[in-house]
Structure formats: C-alpha cells, structure tokens
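To the wet lab folks,

You asked to see what we're planning to order before we commit. Fair enough. Below is the target structure as tokens, and below that is the sequence we designed to fit it. If anything looks off to you, flag it before the synthesis order goes out.
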C-alpha cells in the first residue's frame, strides 16, 4: 500500500515551536508508536503530524507501514530524509494540511496539537477523525489541560467521535527542566 496524497501549503520556515521530549527515558514516542503493531495491519497507511527529524517514530514504522511524515520545519524534514530514507516526508504546517477522507489507518501526533491551542482542538480532532478509515486509530500525546477546566482530553475525543482505547497521564521534565504533564492516548474512530 502506498501513502495517500496530501494537499498542503508548503512552508519555508519553522512555524511550529516543537516541544522537546527527548529527555524521556524510555522514549515514550517509541513505546506508543510500537503499540500500532497490534492495532493495524502491516502495509497500512500511517501519517505523523509534527514528525520532526523522523527519529524515532518514522524510523520504527516506515519498514512496516506506508508511512508519511509532515513537519513545518524544512531543516527537520531534511534531517528526516537523511535519517529515514525509506519514509516519505512533506514540509508543511501539519495543522493546515488537507487529506482525503478515509485515507489513513492511523494518525500519530506527539505534542503537535499543543501549537493549535485548546480552542482549535475540536476542529482539528474532527479533521483527524475524517482522515481515518472506519476503526482507524489516533495515537497522540498532548499537554494536560488545566485541571480545573470543564473539558478533559477524553471529553474532546468523545465529542469528536473517538473511543479512547488506552490512555496514561505522564509527568516528566522537558529540556529546560520544567515539569510537563501530558496525556498519552490511543483513540479509535467510531
């Protein structure tokens, strides 16, 4: 299977400030990306929003799936092409891409949703749901919402038409030593 086409407005400079998660041990992106192997068949179409330099997710998944990575940073995309030549990459703002409905078996996004802001999540989650095949999965990590907020990440996923299959709240230190609480989840399109 080949990765579906994506329509994107190409960007020539970084428009998304990445959240550094390289301080995680073990790297939770690796742990959660590997969970796809029990959920979708070999050869399935997988897209990662905010793929960065392709390591570790593209490196892990590109031999098993029709993987496509999207990132706004041309420098990160160049590094990804060099690090994972078997994968396909697009330099575009992952929040502004247009994809055909029902084209992907899985969408992955580790911290890229943070740049949209909570008010933009319902719309983006609706788009992600539409890109997935029936029963397709969304694997992601997002910063925790304000604990006093009226809406939780599971609420937002439910409202967008997902069923949460697995989730965890993880607290770790970011690259600047600040504590970061994040919600990691696998959700399936209903």
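Sequence we intend to order:
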């Amino acid at each position: 299977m080949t990765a579906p086409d994506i329509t994107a407005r190409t960007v020539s400079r970084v428009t998304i400030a990445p959240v550094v998660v390289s301080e995680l041990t073990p790297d939770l992106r690796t742990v959660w990306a590997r969970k796809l192997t029990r959920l979708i068949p070999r050869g399935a179409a997988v897209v990662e929003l905010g793929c960065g330099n392709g390591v570790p997710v593209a490196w892990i998944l590109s031999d098993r799936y029709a993987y496509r990575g999207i990132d706004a940073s041309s420098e990160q995309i160049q590094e990804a092409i060099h690090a994972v030549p078997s994968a396909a990459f697009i330099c575009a703002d992952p929040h502004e891409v247009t994809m055909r409905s029902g084209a992907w078996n899985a969408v992955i996004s580790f911290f890229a949703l943070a740049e949209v802001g909570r008010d933009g999540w319902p719309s983006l989650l609706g788009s992600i749901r539409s890109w997935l095949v029936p029963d397709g999965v969304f694997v992601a990590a997002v910063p925790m919402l304000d604990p006093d907020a009226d809406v939780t990440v599971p609420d937002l996923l439910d409202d967008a038409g997902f069923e949460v299959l697995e989730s965890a709240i993880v607290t770790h230190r970011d690259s600047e030593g600040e504590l970061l609480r994040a919600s990691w989840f696998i959700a399936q399109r209903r």
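Structural context that might help your review: The chain has five helices and nine strands. The chain has one domain: 20-189.

Thanks,
Computational group
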